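Chain A, query sequence.
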Amino acid sequence: MTPYRLVLESAVLHFVLARRLAERRFIIRTFDALAADPYRHGDYQEKTSAGREMEVILIGKYIITYWADHAVKELRIVRAEIV
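Chain A, predicted structure.
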């Protein structure tokens, strides 16, 4: 399967750029792994006020929230933060 295209919210991009180089690499590898497996379920799910189900994973010291837009083959990373 071809990896989905990654789409990052601007706040996520700023979060990643503010990390040290080794942390940025870890986060980007994680994003790439998610895009390569867009049907992966997170550790838990959250629903937005509009009813969209978001996947949430805990990896290392990070929490990453995303959803896959299968119609256009995009993985949308909407939040990244430190635990």
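The chain has a mean pLDDT of 96. Helices lie at 10-17, 21-36.
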